[in-house]
């Protein structure tokens, strides 16, 4: 069987729908089993997102995770050796202080196994993006509803609903492309605005809550699979109800343990006849 070639940043950077490319498929994953599931499904990119804070670690927002947390999860994903491109998400405060600190933090994710990093924000992040590109670290941008800005934005709110804000978003996207980003995530923006940005850029846009006009789409693993079943934003499509299946299975296990139906003889280890005989002779006191 031919070994599939590993996805690369340059291979992603040219995937524009208007040039006839198939839409890019990206999903988050935070551990080796998740990466294997994503890879067997044939996705193009695996994002080790800071959403790990909310869907795995139980926090209410993404601001609680550190570079060490993201490196830990990136390494777990990388151990699955996926064909898909691995993107390490730079967490809040890891790229806000100085370009030098940004490069060191990105290096930690690259050494953990990421092939590139993602960071949130527009023109004010340009010095950091330029420093990363200069250090040979490929960068994916992230614009629109950027969850690390939740306090500044007043919550998780759809962005660029007004024409002026839409034009600012297009300008931010062009600036990210000019600084060397190889792709841009567009989150929580009107479909029409995502279409304008996608049209304005030569690099691909990856949408989440940004309508169908992007060059690709991304969803959070736990949302798509229905492992996270508490909140369902409008843009999430659940393709399975894995939490329901899991609760059903664990309930059946608990019932079997309590009734004595688990484990059965076939699920237990046994001595061979000779040893069994010896022990029963010994046990009988003969
Ligand atoms: O961390 C994450 O999961 C993300 C996606 C929503 C794009 O940034």
Describe the structure.
The longest helix is centred in the last third of the chain and has 18 residues, at 242-259. The chain is an alpha/beta fold and 286 residues long. 42% of the residues lie in helices and 13% in strands. It has twelve helices and eight strands. It has helices at residues 9-13, 32-40, 52-55, 67-79, 99-112, 126-134, 150-153, 163-179, 191-200, 221-224, 242-259, 273-284, and strands at 24-28, 45-48, 85-89, 116-118, 139-144, 183-187, 205-208, 216-219. It starts with 8 loop residues before the first helix and ends with a helix. An eight-stranded parallel beta barrel has the order 1-2-3-4-5-6-7-8, surrounded by six helices. The structure holds 3-methyl-2-oxobutanoic acid. 3-methyl-2-oxobutanoic acid (KIV) is lined by residues 28, 47, 49-51, 89, 185, 187, 208, 218, 220.
Quick synopsis:
The chain is α/β, with parallel strands linked by helices. It contains 12 helices and 8 strands.
List keywords for this structure.
single chain; 286 residues; 13% strand; binds 3-methyl-2-oxobutanoic acid
Following the backbone from N to C, one meets helices and strands in this order, namely HEHEHHEHEHEHHEHEEHHH
**Uncertain regions: pLDDT < 50 for 5+ in a row?**
none
Structural class: alpha/beta
| Spatial strand sequence of the major β-sheet | 1-2-3-4-5-6-7-8
Count the DSSP helices. Answer: 12
CA radius of gyration is 24 Å
Bound molecules: 3-methyl-2-oxobutanoic acid
- Which percent range describes the beta-strand content? 5-15%
Distance between the termini: 61 Å
Number of strands: 8
Name the assembly state.
single chain
Specify the overall morphology.
Answer: elongated
Biggest β-sheet strands, sense, barrel: 8 strands, parallel, barrel
- Mean pLDDT score: 96
The percentage helix is 40-55%
């Amino acid at each position: 069987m031919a070994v599939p070639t590993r996805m690369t940043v340059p291979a992603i950077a040219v995937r524009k729908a208007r040039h006839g490319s198939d839409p890019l498929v990206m999903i988050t994953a935070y551990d080796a089993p998740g990466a294997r599931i994503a890879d067997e499904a044939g996705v193009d990119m695996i994002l080790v997102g800071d959403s790990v804070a909310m869907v795995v670690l139980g926090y209410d927002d993404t601001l609680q995770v550190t570079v060490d947390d993201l490196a830990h999860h990136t390494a777990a994903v990388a151990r699955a050796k996926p064909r898909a491109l691995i993107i390490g998400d730079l967490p809040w405060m890891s790229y806000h202080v100085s370009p030098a600190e940004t490069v060191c933090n990105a290096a930690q994710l690259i050494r953990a196994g990421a092939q590139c990093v993602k960071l949130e924000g527009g023109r004010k992040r340009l010095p950091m993006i330029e420093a990363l590109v200069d250090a040979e670290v490929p960068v994916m941008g992230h614009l629109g509803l950027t969850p690390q800005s939740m306090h500044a934005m007043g919550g998780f709110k759809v962005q660029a609903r007004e024409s002026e804000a839409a034009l600012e978003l297009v300008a931010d996207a062009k600036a990210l492309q000019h600084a060397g980003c190889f792709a841009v995530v567009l989150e929580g923006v009107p479909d029409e605005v995502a279409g304008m940005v996608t049209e304005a850029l030569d690099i691909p846009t990856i949408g989440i809550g940004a309508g169908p006009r992007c060059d690709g789409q991304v969803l959070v693993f736990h949302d798509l699979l229905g492992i996270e079943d508490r909140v369902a934003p409008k843009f999430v499509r659940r393709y399975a109800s894995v939490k329901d299946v899991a609760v059903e299975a664990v309930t059946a296990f608990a019932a079997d343990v309590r009734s004595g139906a688990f484990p059965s003889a076939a699920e237990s280890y046994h001595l061979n006849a000779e040893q069994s005989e010896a022990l029963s002779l010994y046990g009988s006191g003969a």
